[in-house]
Design a protein that fits this description.
The chain contains three helices and 19 strands. By secondary structure, the chain is mainly β. Helix 2 crosses helix 3.
Length: 353
Amino acid sequence: MNYRIPIPAVDFHPPIYACRFNDKPFQLDGNLDKEFWRNIPFTDNFVDIEGSIRPVPRFRTRAKMAWDHENLYFGALLEGDEIWATLTEHDSVIFQDNDFEIFVDPDSDTQAYTEYEMNALNTTWDLLLTKAYRDNGKPVNGLELKGLRSAVYIDGKLNKPGSHNHSWSVEIVIPFAALSECAAENRAPVSGEYYRVNFSRVQWKVDIKEGAFAKRLDKETGRPLPEDNWVWAPTGVINIHYPELWAFLFFTDEPRSSKDFSIPEDELRKWELRKLYYAQQAHWDETGSYSDSLDVLKETLARLSPCEANKTVQELPFQLSTTPHTFEITCPSQDGARTLAIFSDGKTTSFSS
């Protein structure tokens, strides 16, 4: 059976990154070899979007992040000799080229998040997702991230195959003012708070024809082979729009290590709610209704989850409310002062108990 919202084939282990405050002078040119980035660590190497069940990407990709009082800074290094781009119109569907993509959910509710894509020509596409597509979210393509700036640096030659090609790198500067509508309390972050962030590198398989790159075609269909999706935080499905599995970006005003931070307990509890959400959506697909039984949902998880760790849920005092067309599942926060909730449209939230 084809399920609308597949249960991920990965457990809840998103990367953690300590985003350091950096007030050094910044010159935007796409080149990461500069003083601004000197003491800013790279992320781990990107992996396939489905996780360790897939081969290690054939080209290495890493990113860096920093912040000041006004802006969030991104830098990424995309290694490999296949450096090409064709799209030149802003808000084109950039992933039809090789591209680099950023996803930012400032308040970790898995809704109202920003997507930004760019190719090696520095052609860009920015949009807002009201919800994930799986939850019937709609893209707001008219969104313009006010004040955003980006640049590309190419170590090689664009659209010219050859051994001289080594990598391309990008820099993106996003003002917090452009993200504040989706952020908690509609403001910039302070030290100790976190955003949820992910990156994706789309890489098409290519051949060299008449001295140029050309997408490799399927011999049976004549259409391009599926693209590779290499990400920082794998989602366990070929779908980047699983914001609950994106990385944790902790803001710090000191040069701290990512090992100094850990995933908050309430986010771990939200993951337990999320597993029950997956089970509810699968139950709807199978029966045409949502279940009013936690035991049924637990049985559904045990039966369908492709990941052993996701076959069970932590023993928490869950409460389940179901109507013919919607559901709500809750549990207490770690300190008991608030209630954590997930709804049928995927949104997570908390409110005073």
